[in-house]
Fold:
Amino acid sequence: MKILAGSTNTPLALSIAEKLGEKLSPLEIFIFPDGEKRVRIEDQIAGEDVVIIQPTSSPADNSYMELFFITDAAKRSGAKTITAVIPYLGYQRQDHVFRSGEAVSLEVIAGVLKMVGVNYLITFDLHSIKIPEVFQIPVFHLSALSLFADELKKKGWDKEDCVLVSPDMGGIRRIKLFSEMLNNMPFAVINKNRNLSSGEVEAVGIEGEVAKRAVIVDDMISSGNTIIKAAQLLYSKGASEIIVFATHAVLSIDAPQNLQNSQVSEIYVSDTVFIPENKYFQKMKVLSIADITARTIKENILHQA
Ligand code: R5P
Structure:
Protein backbone atom coordinates (compact mmCIF):
# COMPACT_ATOMS: atom_id res chain seq x y z
CA MET A 1 0.00 0.00 0.00
CA LYS A 2 1.09 3.57 -0.67
CA ILE A 3 -0.44 6.62 0.98
CA LEU A 4 -0.43 10.02 -0.67
CA ALA A 5 -1.72 13.24 0.82
CA GLY A 6 -2.81 16.43 -0.85
CA SER A 7 -2.19 19.66 0.98
CA THR A 8 -5.56 20.22 2.68
CA ASN A 9 -5.14 18.24 5.92
CA THR A 10 -1.59 17.03 6.54
CA PRO A 11 -2.02 16.33 10.30
CA LEU A 12 -4.95 14.00 9.58
CA ALA A 13 -3.11 12.28 6.72
CA LEU A 14 -0.05 11.69 8.95
CA SER A 15 -2.25 10.32 11.69
CA ILE A 16 -4.10 7.90 9.35
CA ALA A 17 -0.77 6.75 7.87
CA GLU A 18 0.68 6.18 11.34
CA LYS A 19 -2.32 4.08 12.35
CA LEU A 20 -1.76 1.96 9.24
CA GLY A 21 1.92 1.60 10.12
CA GLU A 22 2.90 3.48 6.95
CA LYS A 23 4.63 6.72 5.94
CA LEU A 24 3.26 9.25 3.45
CA SER A 25 4.83 8.81 0.00
CA PRO A 26 6.75 11.86 -1.16
CA LEU A 27 4.79 14.07 -3.51
CA GLU A 28 5.88 17.22 -5.31
CA ILE A 29 3.19 19.89 -5.64
CA PHE A 30 4.67 22.82 -7.54
CA ILE A 31 2.63 26.02 -7.66
CA PHE A 32 3.17 28.25 -10.69
CA PRO A 33 3.10 32.03 -10.13
CA ASP A 34 -0.47 32.18 -11.46
CA GLY A 35 -1.64 29.57 -8.95
CA GLU A 36 -1.80 26.54 -11.27
CA LYS A 37 -0.37 23.32 -9.85
CA ARG A 38 1.93 20.63 -11.19
CA VAL A 39 1.86 17.32 -9.33
CA ARG A 40 4.47 14.53 -9.36
CA ILE A 41 4.59 11.35 -7.29
CA GLU A 42 8.19 10.74 -6.19
CA ASP A 43 7.68 7.11 -5.14
CA GLN A 44 7.36 3.81 -7.01
CA ILE A 45 3.67 2.97 -6.84
CA ALA A 46 3.19 0.59 -9.77
CA GLY A 47 1.05 -2.39 -8.75
CA GLU A 48 0.24 -0.86 -5.35
CA ASP A 49 -3.06 -0.12 -3.64
CA VAL A 50 -2.89 3.68 -3.42
CA VAL A 51 -4.78 5.73 -0.86
CA ILE A 52 -5.06 9.48 -1.47
CA ILE A 53 -6.13 11.60 1.50
CA GLN A 54 -7.61 14.97 0.63
CA PRO A 55 -10.62 16.62 2.30
CA THR A 56 -12.04 18.96 -0.32
CA SER A 57 -12.64 21.84 2.04
CA SER A 58 -12.43 25.52 1.24
CA PRO A 59 -11.27 26.58 -1.27
CA ALA A 60 -13.05 23.52 -2.69
CA ASP A 61 -12.08 24.21 -6.31
CA ASN A 62 -8.37 24.16 -5.45
CA SER A 63 -8.70 21.11 -3.22
CA TYR A 64 -10.50 19.16 -5.92
CA MET A 65 -8.08 20.13 -8.71
CA GLU A 66 -5.17 18.94 -6.57
CA LEU A 67 -6.95 15.66 -5.85
CA PHE A 68 -7.75 15.14 -9.54
CA PHE A 69 -4.09 15.67 -10.49
CA ILE A 70 -2.74 13.36 -7.76
CA THR A 71 -5.21 10.68 -8.85
CA ASP A 72 -4.22 11.09 -12.50
CA ALA A 73 -0.54 10.84 -11.56
CA ALA A 74 -1.26 7.67 -9.54
CA LYS A 75 -3.15 6.09 -12.43
CA ARG A 76 -0.43 6.96 -14.94
CA SER A 77 2.19 5.54 -12.56
CA GLY A 78 0.45 2.14 -12.57
CA ALA A 79 -1.45 2.08 -9.26
CA LYS A 80 -3.38 -1.17 -8.84
CA THR A 81 -6.33 0.49 -7.06
CA ILE A 82 -6.96 4.08 -6.06
CA THR A 83 -8.95 4.96 -2.96
CA ALA A 84 -9.84 8.60 -2.41
CA VAL A 85 -10.26 9.45 1.26
CA ILE A 86 -12.31 12.65 1.19
CA PRO A 87 -13.42 13.01 4.82
CA TYR A 88 -15.18 16.28 4.02
CA LEU A 89 -16.76 16.10 0.58
CA GLY A 90 -16.95 19.57 -0.92
CA TYR A 91 -19.79 20.51 -3.28
CA GLN A 92 -22.20 17.99 -1.74
CA ARG A 93 -24.80 20.63 -0.84
CA GLN A 94 -25.96 20.87 -4.45
CA ASP A 95 -26.98 17.22 -4.82
CA HIS A 96 -30.03 17.89 -6.98
CA VAL A 97 -31.79 20.71 -8.80
CA PHE A 98 -33.51 22.87 -6.16
CA ARG A 99 -34.60 25.62 -8.57
CA SER A 100 -34.77 25.26 -12.34
CA GLY A 101 -31.66 26.40 -14.13
CA GLU A 102 -29.21 25.16 -11.49
CA ALA A 103 -26.19 22.88 -12.00
CA VAL A 104 -25.89 19.68 -9.94
CA SER A 105 -22.34 20.18 -8.63
CA LEU A 106 -22.17 16.83 -6.86
CA GLU A 107 -22.86 14.87 -10.07
CA VAL A 108 -20.06 16.76 -11.81
CA ILE A 109 -17.64 15.92 -9.00
CA ALA A 110 -18.70 12.24 -8.95
CA GLY A 111 -18.21 12.00 -12.72
CA VAL A 112 -14.75 13.55 -12.66
CA LEU A 113 -13.55 11.41 -9.73
CA LYS A 114 -14.47 8.26 -11.66
CA MET A 115 -13.02 9.59 -14.88
CA VAL A 116 -9.60 10.36 -13.34
CA GLY A 117 -9.42 6.83 -11.93
CA VAL A 118 -10.79 6.68 -8.37
CA ASN A 119 -11.96 3.12 -7.57
CA TYR A 120 -13.21 3.58 -3.99
CA LEU A 121 -14.36 6.57 -1.99
CA ILE A 122 -14.17 6.90 1.79
CA THR A 123 -16.05 9.84 3.21
CA PHE A 124 -17.78 11.02 6.39
CA ASP A 125 -21.22 12.20 7.43
CA LEU A 126 -22.61 13.22 4.10
CA HIS A 127 -25.32 15.80 4.08
CA SER A 128 -27.83 13.31 2.66
CA ILE A 129 -27.98 9.51 2.78
CA LYS A 130 -28.76 9.47 -0.95
CA ILE A 131 -25.42 11.03 -1.98
CA PRO A 132 -23.54 7.70 -2.40
CA GLU A 133 -26.07 6.75 -5.10
CA VAL A 134 -24.70 9.55 -7.27
CA PHE A 135 -21.30 7.83 -7.42
CA GLN A 136 -20.66 4.96 -9.81
CA ILE A 137 -17.95 3.51 -7.55
CA PRO A 138 -18.22 1.87 -4.09
CA VAL A 139 -18.60 4.51 -1.37
CA PHE A 140 -17.75 3.86 2.28
CA HIS A 141 -19.96 6.36 4.06
CA LEU A 142 -18.53 6.61 7.58
CA SER A 143 -19.65 8.65 10.55
CA ALA A 144 -18.21 10.48 13.54
CA LEU A 145 -21.39 9.73 15.52
CA SER A 146 -19.75 6.88 17.46
CA LEU A 147 -17.05 9.32 18.69
CA PHE A 148 -19.78 11.75 19.77
CA ALA A 149 -21.79 9.02 21.52
CA ASP A 150 -18.68 8.04 23.51
CA GLU A 151 -18.21 11.69 24.59
CA LEU A 152 -21.81 11.99 25.71
CA LYS A 153 -21.54 8.76 27.69
CA LYS A 154 -18.36 10.10 29.37
CA LYS A 155 -20.29 13.23 30.39
CA GLY A 156 -22.89 10.99 32.04
CA TRP A 157 -25.84 12.77 30.44
CA ASP A 158 -28.76 10.38 30.28
CA LYS A 159 -32.33 10.23 29.04
CA GLU A 160 -33.80 11.46 32.34
CA ASP A 161 -32.88 15.09 31.70
CA CYS A 162 -31.44 15.22 28.20
CA VAL A 163 -32.83 15.55 24.68
CA LEU A 164 -31.00 15.11 21.37
CA VAL A 165 -31.88 17.76 18.81
CA SER A 166 -31.62 17.89 15.04
CA PRO A 167 -31.41 21.56 14.01
CA ASP A 168 -33.36 20.85 10.83
CA MET A 169 -35.71 18.30 9.25
CA GLY A 170 -32.90 17.05 6.99
CA GLY A 171 -31.13 15.65 10.07
CA ILE A 172 -33.93 13.32 11.21
CA ARG A 173 -32.20 10.12 10.14
CA ARG A 174 -28.96 11.19 11.83
CA ILE A 175 -30.68 12.04 15.10
CA LYS A 176 -32.61 8.74 15.13
CA LEU A 177 -29.36 6.85 14.60
CA PHE A 178 -27.65 8.80 17.38
CA SER A 179 -30.60 8.14 19.67
CA GLU A 180 -30.30 4.39 19.01
CA MET A 181 -26.58 4.53 19.90
CA LEU A 182 -27.56 6.11 23.22
CA ASN A 183 -30.11 3.63 24.44
CA ASN A 184 -32.99 5.41 22.66
CA MET A 185 -32.43 8.80 24.21
CA PRO A 186 -35.39 11.06 23.31
CA PHE A 187 -34.97 13.42 20.39
CA ALA A 188 -36.60 16.52 18.96
CA VAL A 189 -36.38 18.13 15.54
CA ILE A 190 -36.29 21.85 14.80
CA ASN A 191 -38.17 23.28 11.88
CA LYS A 192 -35.61 25.49 10.12
CA ASN A 193 -36.13 27.88 7.25
CA ARG A 194 -33.22 29.03 5.12
CA ASN A 195 -33.63 31.81 2.60
CA LEU A 196 -31.95 30.40 -0.53
CA SER A 197 -30.93 33.83 -1.83
CA SER A 198 -29.61 35.49 1.36
CA GLY A 199 -28.62 32.28 3.22
CA GLU A 200 -30.36 33.59 6.36
CA VAL A 201 -31.58 30.98 8.82
CA GLU A 202 -34.65 30.96 11.05
CA ALA A 203 -35.58 28.29 13.66
CA VAL A 204 -39.36 28.49 13.49
CA GLY A 205 -40.47 25.71 15.82
CA ILE A 206 -39.66 22.34 17.32
CA GLU A 207 -41.27 18.91 17.19
CA GLY A 208 -40.71 17.02 20.43
CA GLU A 209 -40.15 17.80 24.13
CA VAL A 210 -37.29 20.08 25.20
CA ALA A 211 -35.34 18.95 28.30
CA LYS A 212 -33.00 20.78 30.70
CA ARG A 213 -30.00 19.50 28.76
CA ALA A 214 -30.00 19.64 24.96
CA VAL A 215 -27.52 18.10 22.54
CA ILE A 216 -27.61 19.53 19.01
CA VAL A 217 -26.26 17.16 16.35
CA ASP A 218 -25.43 18.31 12.83
CA ASP A 219 -23.24 17.29 9.91
CA MET A 220 -21.40 20.59 9.58
CA ILE A 221 -20.95 24.06 10.97
CA SER A 222 -20.33 26.69 8.33
CA SER A 223 -21.59 30.16 9.28
CA GLY A 224 -22.73 28.79 12.65
CA ASN A 225 -26.17 30.35 12.19
CA THR A 226 -28.02 27.02 12.23
CA ILE A 227 -26.51 26.18 15.65
CA ILE A 228 -26.93 29.69 17.07
CA LYS A 229 -30.61 29.92 16.07
CA ALA A 230 -31.29 26.38 17.31
CA ALA A 231 -29.69 27.21 20.68
CA GLN A 232 -31.76 30.40 21.00
CA LEU A 233 -34.95 28.44 20.36
CA LEU A 234 -33.99 25.69 22.83
CA TYR A 235 -33.25 28.27 25.55
CA SER A 236 -36.57 29.96 24.94
CA LYS A 237 -38.25 26.56 25.41
CA GLY A 238 -36.53 25.85 28.75
CA ALA A 239 -33.15 24.22 28.02
CA SER A 240 -30.42 25.52 30.34
CA GLU A 241 -27.36 23.57 29.14
CA ILE A 242 -26.69 23.05 25.45
CA ILE A 243 -23.81 21.28 23.74
CA VAL A 244 -23.19 20.58 20.07
CA PHE A 245 -21.76 17.69 18.07
CA ALA A 246 -21.00 18.47 14.41
CA THR A 247 -18.67 16.45 12.22
CA HIS A 248 -17.30 19.04 9.81
CA ALA A 249 -15.83 22.25 11.23
CA VAL A 250 -16.05 24.35 8.09
CA LEU A 251 -16.20 27.51 10.26
CA SER A 252 -16.63 30.20 7.64
CA ILE A 253 -15.83 33.87 8.26
CA ASP A 254 -16.74 34.91 11.82
CA ALA A 255 -18.34 31.60 12.90
CA PRO A 256 -15.69 30.91 15.63
CA GLN A 257 -16.33 34.25 17.33
CA ASN A 258 -20.12 33.98 17.02
CA LEU A 259 -20.15 30.43 18.38
CA GLN A 260 -17.88 31.38 21.29
CA ASN A 261 -20.35 34.15 22.18
CA SER A 262 -23.42 31.90 21.73
CA GLN A 263 -25.55 30.21 24.40
CA VAL A 264 -23.90 26.88 23.67
CA SER A 265 -21.40 25.69 26.29
CA GLU A 266 -19.34 23.14 24.32
CA ILE A 267 -18.94 22.35 20.63
CA TYR A 268 -17.42 19.03 19.61
CA VAL A 269 -16.24 18.72 16.02
CA SER A 270 -13.95 16.28 14.21
CA ASP A 271 -10.77 16.75 12.21
CA THR A 272 -12.30 15.94 8.79
CA VAL A 273 -11.48 19.55 7.91
CA PHE A 274 -8.12 21.09 8.87
CA ILE A 275 -8.75 23.82 11.44
CA PRO A 276 -6.14 26.59 11.32
CA GLU A 277 -4.88 28.12 14.57
CA ASN A 278 -6.86 31.35 14.08
CA LYS A 279 -10.16 29.43 13.95
CA TYR A 280 -9.74 27.71 17.30
CA PHE A 281 -11.98 28.98 20.10
CA GLN A 282 -12.32 27.99 23.72
CA LYS A 283 -15.66 26.17 23.52
CA MET A 284 -14.51 23.92 20.65
CA LYS A 285 -13.10 20.42 21.18
CA VAL A 286 -11.72 18.37 18.28
CA LEU A 287 -12.03 14.57 18.04
CA SER A 288 -10.14 12.55 15.43
CA ILE A 289 -11.59 10.33 12.72
CA ALA A 290 -8.13 8.86 11.94
CA ASP A 291 -8.76 5.59 13.73
CA ILE A 292 -12.11 4.91 12.03
CA THR A 293 -10.59 5.73 8.62
CA ALA A 294 -7.52 3.53 9.10
CA ARG A 295 -9.72 0.63 10.25
CA THR A 296 -11.94 0.97 7.17
CA ILE A 297 -8.93 0.96 4.84
CA LYS A 298 -7.49 -2.10 6.58
CA GLU A 299 -10.73 -4.08 6.75
CA ASN A 300 -12.35 -3.20 3.42
CA ILE A 301 -10.14 -1.61 0.83
CA LEU A 302 -7.04 -3.77 1.17
CA HIS A 303 -9.22 -6.84 1.63
CA GLN A 304 -11.17 -6.12 -1.56
CA ALA A 305 -8.22 -5.24 -3.72
C1 R5P B 1 -27.82 22.05 6.47
O1 R5P B 1 -28.81 21.52 6.09
C2 R5P B 1 -26.70 21.37 7.19
O2 R5P B 1 -27.09 20.18 7.80
C3 R5P B 1 -26.12 22.31 8.22
O3 R5P B 1 -27.09 22.55 9.21
C4 R5P B 1 -25.71 23.61 7.60
O4 R5P B 1 -24.94 23.42 6.46
C5 R5P B 1 -24.95 24.46 8.59
O5 R5P B 1 -24.66 25.67 7.99
P1 R5P B 1 -24.51 27.01 8.80
O6 R5P B 1 -23.53 26.76 9.91
O7 R5P B 1 -24.02 28.00 7.80
O8 R5P B 1 -25.86 27.39 9.31
